[in-house]
Amino acid sequence: MIKNYLKIAFRNFQRNRIFSFINTLGFSIGLSVCLLMVLFVQDELSYDNFHQKADRIALFKQYEAGLGSGGGFTPLLKSEIGQVEQVTRLVKHRPLVAVEGKAYYENEFYFADSTFFQLFDFQLLQGNPQTALSGVENVIISEKIAQKYFGNENPIGKVLKCDNKFDLTVVGLLKNVPTNSHIDIDFLCSFQKSEAMLGQKLDSYWDYKSLTYVLFSENTDLQAVSAKLESVRAKTQDQNSSVWKLGFVPLREIYLKAPLDDRTKAAKAIENVYIFSAVAFFVLLLACFNYINLSSARSTLRGKEVGVRKVLGAKRQQIFWQFMVESAIFTFGGTLLALLIAYFALPFLNQFVEKQLSFASFFSTVYFIFFVGIILLITLFTGTYPSLLLSSFHATEVLKNKLFRGANNTFFRQSLVVLQFALSIAILVSTLLILNQLYFIQNKNLGYDRSQVMTLTLQGEASPTQKETLKRQIQGLSFVQSVTLSALFAGEGMFQNKLVESYVPKGKDLSYGFNMIDTDFLKTMNIKLIEGKNFTETQKPEQNLFIINQSMVDFLAWENGALGKEIGYYSYQYTPEGGYKEVPIRGQVVGVVADYHQSSLKTKIMPMLLQLNSGNENKLSIKIEKGKAQEAVSEVEQIWKANFPDRPIEYSFLDKNFDANFKKETMTAKVLGLFSSLTIFISCLGLFGLVSFSAERRIKEIGIRKVLGASVLQITTLLSKDFLKLVMVAFVIASPIAYYFMDKWLADFAYRITISWWIFAVAGVSVVLIALITVSWQSIKAAVANPVKSLR
Predict the structure, then answer these.
(1) Which residues lie closer than 8 Å to 206 by C-beta, 6 or more apart?
(2) DSSP H or E run through 138
(3) Buried b (16+ CB within 10 A) or exposed e, 658-696
């Protein structure tokens, strides 16, 4: 019986090659997208799962908008929260590391408490994890760092020189950190060494340099434990503790849900997990809809086959299983083709999402079970309705050419077409809105000019005199328009502090942003001065002169101008007892600048002070003439080597740094753009099949109409209009759904586009035109056919 089922199935596929091809191709594309997205989502959700105690580890955070905390919280967490078994801190540093003529700035250098390996399962290939971090002069390095500096030599016992001052002895070799870790680690140095190398003791509540990880006892309720943080706040007896937002982030949620922090890979990746999971599911659903739609449509052509079988004694369940076997063969063949498509598409996906996903994952036991489950589920999903429909035909009726009711259930097929195109239009609208938002961000007037600005970070290796010398020499280059030294680059963010209450209207927040700049900052960044004057070379930092932005003027409600008015903020002095006291710093406003985006476009412009630099600033911005970037890089490198021969130069460009802030959104737009194309393609495949079937069923009608004088246009319109109506209905359904979800997505941006009607119009018209081309192609083919052949 099974052999007979298979034989009939293959004969049917061969007899209906076009429909078999459309079904298989659409399903395979949909499934391959689903498989690739399963790989992507599985990788995203796997972050930090390799730690055995991952479910018991959480990161303590001090503020809502970041992941850091002051180093002084460690003893309080242990004493005030009974469920805490251990605490460890990581502090990131970026030293210059040198070995025998090789010198590089290293980004993944961490100071760590000796308890580090009690929490985390990063593997030491050489060295003792219990003692490696106890020695002040010890360092652990990763495999790739060992290869980078020592080649194939054994690194244990080798000496690294950091910042040309500190000798560290290698006592451990760390296996390269897995890519699905929320932190990359290349160096681990004893926390006790941080004071000497950083120039400060990390034991206050305000240094904010630590990533503080807490290991809880078994079965700890994190929500209940979080309530005890109020006692931690009270124990600090800090008069400004009200600004803290103390909390815990579970280890597995750092990458997925935590706020952005440049010390980790935290990227709120859960948004992409939701988006890509949903889209992958819908793409596969579209492909399944195609099969159901075409199979149920063509069921009318197999009525006589079913009738003959029933006359010869076939039972309903036998006919049902015959068609289920056909569905299973289709699903299995489509799955094999989907694997082939996924294999060749995976490198392109890796480029899109900047990952190293491996096709070898498909051959694991988990994925084998997944494939078997997918084949069974899709077989049931796609095969049940057509099988039930075909097996329910009555032999006497179909043999008399009476179509059984249900076989011509156009409403069901039309509903599937509407669903297909509604999903396609919704994804296309979402893609267009994301692209439009990115275009808006990239072309928004930021209040400063980021083009042709080369940036250098001096890393604190230069004295104030050396910095000014470097600046002057670069300024002397013919193609350099201006050079400035500041504490932060434009667009990089801002420091935050607290204003003196007496200057702020009652009831308003005291926080403000600030940056330290020199006299050339406004000119270099083309920031508009709307009132007063710029800083001058004769002014000194200790004069406490300020330039403020327009938002500060509005915030303070200064209606009669800001020039000459006094403003103040708090500085802090540490007391001999280990506490601190606030010291008000007051000064005069000498200028007002138009608002510009010192921080990301995801945050509102806040009131800001610009202060004259004190000589400690180490961010160098160089404005270059258009088209001279290559020359600038070459010349600046030579000047750098002349001033700092033992330190490598590292440079970037401000516009690239700006674009990097929206890397996740750009990747989302690219992948969604690809998905929207695929959904429309799959939907059009199904539409093409249905139009072909419709033309085949009405071939004699078309012949008669042509004989009676109907034109090609009239016949094409006859075959096309019903399908185009369905696309229009799909547009009406998709538009409000897309609007709702994209409005929620745009809420993450402080500066965003308005959702305009023309985006929906473009998406709707595009899909209608594509559908029209698809429908017209087959309709015209039927319309121009010889009516004599049609009537025969």
Answers:
(1) 70, 572, 580
(2) strand 138-142
(3) beebbeebbebbbbbbbbbebbbbbbbbbbbbbbbbbbe
pTM, full prediction: 0.81
Contacts with 661 (C-beta within 8 Å, 6 or more apart), sequence order: 491, 600, 601, 602
Cβ proximity of 775 and 724 under 8 Å: yes
Q: What is the mean pLDDT of each run of 10 residues along the chain (792 residues)?
A: 62 67 80 86 90 95 88 91 94 92 90 95 94 92 95 93 92 94 95 91 88 94 90 87 89 88 79 84 80 64 63 70 76 85 88 82 76 79 67 57 51 77 86 86 88 86 85 92 94 88 88 92 95 90 91 91 91 71 90 92 89 86 91 91 87 86 78 79 73 66 74 74 82 91 85 89 86 73 62 57
- Judged by DSSP in three states, 50 sits in coil
Residue 110 CB partners (closer than 8 Å, separation 6+): 90, 91, 92, 93, 183, 185, 187, 188, 189
Q: Is 506 left (phi over 0), alpha (psi -120 to 50) or beta?
A: beta
Q: What is the DSSP letter of 361?
A: G
Three-point CA angle 468, 471, 476, nearest 5°: 125
CA distances from 16 to 12, 23, 295, 327, 430 (A): 6, 11, 11, 15, 37
Segments in 199-315 forming alpha helices (H): 222-226, 229-236, 254-257, 270-298, 303-311
State the Cα–Cα distance between residues 246 and 70, nearest whole angstrom: 11
Type of residue numbered 281? F
Closest CA to 281 of 293, 270, 273: 273
Tokens 């009525």 correspond to 303
Report pLDDT for 695: 63
Q: What is the 3-state secondary structure (H, E, C) of 319-357?
A: HHHHHHHHHHHHHHHHHHHHHHHHHHHHHHHHHHHCCCC
703: left (phi over 0), alpha (psi -120 to 50) or beta: alpha
Bridge partners (DSSP) of residue 112 are: 90, 190
CA separation (Å) from 138 to 34, 87, 171, 187?
Answer: 48, 21, 6, 10
Amino acid at 730: A
DSSP code for 499: B
As a whole number of angstroms, the distance between CA 552 and CA 418 comes to 53
